[in-house]
Amino acid sequence: MNRIVMTFGLLLVMGFAASAHAADVSEGKSLFQGEKYRCYSCHGKNGEGVSAPGFKGVGKKFSQEEMMKRAAHNCPPTGACNPKELEAIVSYLRTI
Ligand code: HEC
User: Contacts by 33-37 with C-beta closer than 8 Å and gap 24+?
Assistant: First the structure.
């Protein structure tokens, strides 16, 4: 009985983690393509690269942390990028 409850609990937690991640990625995609940060203007609408490097396979090259540092170059001079939004953008870029 306990095992059933535990298995169910675990599946529930895993489900939540997976859906939170999926939401981050799609949020990150719209932020990347949005006007607030304009990442797409140099990196291409789908991260294919225009005047700046593309992101294909970048998730294998850099850790999430390393990418957070590298992605901060375009934060507005008046303030930092919203860290949650930057995290979402990076999560999206790592799926390209
Ligand atoms: C004005 C043009 C421009 C904009 C806008 C811009 N970038 Fe960049 N980005 C660059 C250039 C040029 C490089 C390569 C040189 C460097 O690493 O600084 C780069 C490098 C990067 C890298 C490192 C990639 C690698 O392979 O080394 C990441 C990650 C990144 N940008 C993310 C972002 C994100 C996220 C945004 C939006 C918040 C953004 N960039 C907006 C020009 C831009």
Answer: 36/85, 37/74, 37/75, 37/81, 37/85, 37/89
Side chain identity at residue 61, one-letter code: K
- Quick one: tokens of 35? 């006007």
**Residue 95 burial (CB count, 10 A):** 13
Mean pLDDT of 53-78: 86
Mutate which of 31, 42, 51, 84 for ligand 1? The one with the most ligand atoms within 8 Å of its CB, which is 42
pLDDT band at 6 (very low <50, low <70, confident <90, very high): low
Distance 21 CA to ligand 1 centre (A): 23
Are 37 and 82 in contact by the 8 Å Cβ rule? The answer is: no
Structure confidence at residue 71 (pLDDT): 87
